[in-house]
Amino acid sequence: MEKLLNELSSQSGFAYDIKCDVEADFSIPENLKRKSDLGLPGIAENDLLRHFTNLSRKNYALSTVFYPLGSCTMKYNPLINERIAKYDAFNSIHPCQPAETMQGILEIMHGLEKDLCEISGMDNFSLQPAAGAHGEFTGLLIIAAHFRSIKQKRTKIIVPDSAHGTNPASAAFAGFEIVPLKSEPDGSIDVSKLKEVLTNEVAAIMLTVPNTLGVFESKMREIAKAVHENGSLLYYDGANLNALMGFARPGDLGFDVMHINLHKTFSTPHGGGGPGSGPVGVKSFLERFLPVPRVEKKNKKYVLNYKKTKSIGAVKSFFGNFPVILRAYAYIKALGGNGLKNASAQAVLNANYMLAKFKDKINVPAGTRCMHEFVLSPKAALGGGVRTLDVAKRLLDYGYYAPTVYFPLIVEEAVMIEPTETESKETLDKFIETLNKIILEESVNEPQKVKDAPSNTPVTRLNEVEAARNPILKWKNR
Amino acid sequence: MNIPEDLKFTKTHEWVKIEGNKATVGITDFAQHEITDVVHVELPEISKGVIKAQPAAVIESVKSAFDIYSPVTGKISAVNEEVLGSPELINQDPYGKGFLFTVEFTETENNELTALLSAEDYKKLI
């Protein structure tokens, strides 16, 4: 493993040093001034260069490996959009400038809102939320504001047990009580079971379509009818929008509020904490609750409207994560309507191709057709006491990023694979061959090797239990 | 798989030991094996009211976090504070030192106990 800078520090004094030749007098009393050495590491310039170069070569990224991380849509993000996001024309603008001096930026925001409306079938969008879960939270605050405004006391949110963990977390954070809904083995909703929990206290149901097992909600219209007849709203989690673009629109399916993960579906590198962007879309009857400022067009000029008395207020400083908004706009304009539709079609085709190659050998709980991702349950196919976690670790030895594992919770020993539209058949074939080999051959013939994996990564199997029980959170001089 | 004959069980993999009007609750050997190493536990406060089949405690493993449902309606009369500092007890001794909490229930709530599974029924379930 690469040493830390402190550990690399030169004992011989052969190191680069920055001399401070500025005599500053900050009027710090003598007794408060540091007497001892600051203890910063001193490293020879060449050693420092090698340190950072070597670290950069250990990067595990979409630009170095296949990244089949289910539910995360780790697709190729065109590098041209990175360049656009770095243009001085955008980066030298200050968010406090008067609106009339940043018409270009406002035009892009206004344009992206319109495009997202067209893609999703919603009437209005706010680009403020900083990521998916933040979008959920914002959407739920809007739902709460709506019921307050019509003086209805609705305190519950229905969340299927196949949902992403952020759904119940966001709903609880927004002050709602969670009503879990047991989903079917393929993750879908049974309308009669839904009706049992659909009381007059229910504000909304949060749905992911296609669901986390990669299956389209076939009873969508019935679900929407039942929910609306109950006076409740439908929230669409846009995590899986990459399967639907150009084919189906959440707004047409009956959803009232939704978020889109721009960093997943619309060209921003992610994984590692962001920044992301989770715009929230609503039907027109909820527009007045959207966060301020709203970007509006008046007399051929773009203006920022803060005067929305029913707004839930700002949820992020200024206008959201603008560089992500910019990348999404560039991506949508470059691909166009047909391009986006093709992207979804290819994503679904890739996933079905992989699923077809696995289905005869490994259990697939949700059936043999899928949308953009699918979930394997390799429990029965594994030998030698090997578990899914071991398989995931073993994939690292073969140079792959491991798929999502143990999610969704309703599938035993789940392996969740999302190939995305940007991977070639050759890449998929190699991965299929490797995963089949680990599960069907290695776990049976060399189980210990799989349980000890990874063995050729910079660090081998980490003690996750010890790390969770007794975390060491800061560097210690050993 | 260890399934003690003298205990009752739930479909959500809790075990229950009934003594008078008190029910001591933990997770089964099967459950601790499935969720793997427990790293964090959240227990209810003493004298807090709990409702049958509603979450009463949370167990977190390296895999995920899991709600632990109270098998009976009543009031929390004791919690096992030892598992807060040593969550591994749940893996090592799920039916003993790894118990989670005790619920005190009243005569009327007693009826709920008949819905609990016997060791034989639980064996069939898993």
Number of domains of chain A: 3
Number of helices of chain B: 4
Low-confidence stretches of chain A: none
CATH class of chain B: Mainly Beta
Q: For this entry, what is the oligomeric state of its chains?
A: heterodimer
Mean pLDDT of chain B: 92
Q: Gap between N and C termini of chain A, in Å?
A: 16 Å
Estimated share of beta-strand residues of chain B: 25-35%
Structural class of chain A: alpha/beta
Describe it.
The complex is a heterodimer of chains A (about 475) and B (about 130). Chain A folds into three domains: about 5-55, no CATH class; about 80-335, Aspartate Aminotransferase, domain 2; about 345-465, Aspartate Aminotransferase, domain 1 (Alpha-Beta Complex), CATH 3.90.1150. A seven-stranded mixed sheet of chain A has the order 1-7-6-5-4-2-3, sandwiched between helices. In chain A, strands 10-12-11 form a three-stranded antiparallel sheet, with helices on one face. Chain A has about 475 residues and is of the alpha/beta class. Chain A has helices at about 5-10, 45-55, 80-85, 90, 105-120, 130-150, 165-175, 190-195, 220-230, 250-255, 260-265, 320-360, 390-395, 425-445, 445-450, 465-470; strands spanning about 125, 155-160, 175-180, 200-210, 235-240, 255-260, 280, 295-300, 300-305, 375, 405, 415. Helices cover about 20% and strands about 35% of the residues of chain B. In chain B, the strands form two sheets. Chain B has a six-stranded antiparallel sheet. Chain B has a three-stranded antiparallel sheet with strand order 4-6-7. In chain B, a hairpin with a 3-residue loop joins β6 (about 55-60) and β7. The longest helix of chain B is centred in the first third of the chain and has 7 residues, at about 30-35. The N and C termini of chain B lie close together (about 10 Å). The mean pLDDT of chain B is about 90.
